[in-house]
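Service request form, structural biology core

Requester: graduate student, group of Dr. S.
Request type: structure prediction, single chain
Budget code: on file
Notes: please return the result as structure tokens.

Sequence provided:
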Amino acid sequence: MRIELISTGDEVITGNIDDTNASFLSRELFEAGLQVDRRHTSGDSLTELMELFYQVSQKEAIVIATGGMGPTNDDLTTEAIAKVANVPLQLNTTWYERMKAWFDNRGRFMAHSNLKQAMLPQGAIMIDNPTGTACGFAIKVNQALFIFLPGVPRELKAMWESSVKEMVISYTNDTVPRTHLIKLFLMGIGESTLMSKLAPIELPQGITIGDRAIYPFIELKIIGHDASDQDMFEVLGQVMNIVSPYYVCRDHYSLIESLNAHKIQLNAINAIDGVTRGWLLIHMQELFKNFVACSVLNATNNELNEQEKGYIAKHLEHAPNFNKISLLPCQQAIDVSLLKEYPYCYEFSFNLDYKQEDDGHNLTGRYLIALKEDVNSHALYSRNRDFLAHLCCVELYKLLVNEPTITPEDCKILMLDCKRSSYHLSK
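Core staff response, request fulfilled:
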């Protein structure tokens, strides 16, 4: 059995609005292990809709169609599928009463045209809409099962979560090959280099590897179409052996959610950014919800003058020492051989108190991060600056969850100092 999507509406086919519904459904289905086979788009033409519905109905498929279910004359979806199924439209009294109550509860008059939204093809199963006036419905036509949903994204998503997702999964059990998806988020390696490293892996039938660049990360996808769990885990093991120096996290890039899963609670922090012009503070919000204080210093050159040094020293003197993070130009002696290849050096330091379950922890450390290119090479926004800020955030995250830190290819990271202590919290 196939899965196909149909989006309707002149505004969609002309490009006046983006088809976010199809993207949402494709993504949700894929996450549920179901691969969409084809997507269609049609304008508000009764003839075109009927031809498309008839064509798709000749295949054994589940078809999810969105849009064209409003009260106006150009909402033709329900009429079109009724004609293809050769059945009349009938008033669904359950939805009519629900719709009337929806208007009454809001003190609004229900126009006669809204009656159209309660007219469903004979034999169709109504699908509740908890947030709007257009119900959905399911109907079998020829070899295909059609599921029709309104085109308002907010309503469609609510209906998907409340009933349609479960409906589709139950209909596809043992009829649609399941798709497995494993996503790995990597940092510090280019796409071409990554794929050349992965090329020697012999993939079992049905398993593919793909990637997507979302700077400064690469989202590596291991996709299995009707593949066994054993084959998927064997491929994952081979991939991890290669990408572990660049591995950030798996499945979803949400560092705060990951910290919550590890039951790690971070207090508010004091952050000093003397290099990335505020990008460090932006990305640190991926770990910390609150700042006690934050400062962006205009001290971005590697060669600081005496006035800049004095300003930084004064600022650090008055900054609280607890839960402090700072990124500053490196002021200590550095190996000359390192400077030849990586001339731009920065010092990332931290002193953090955090809780994990019933224990308190303190993590302190200093890192030297050396880059080949200046972070200030491109005016206010620089990919190098964004990369450095993200890198500090990721390295700190890896330390907090006790995972090996990453080692990007185009920079050097030296751990100057790192200490962790723990103590039991009294209740």
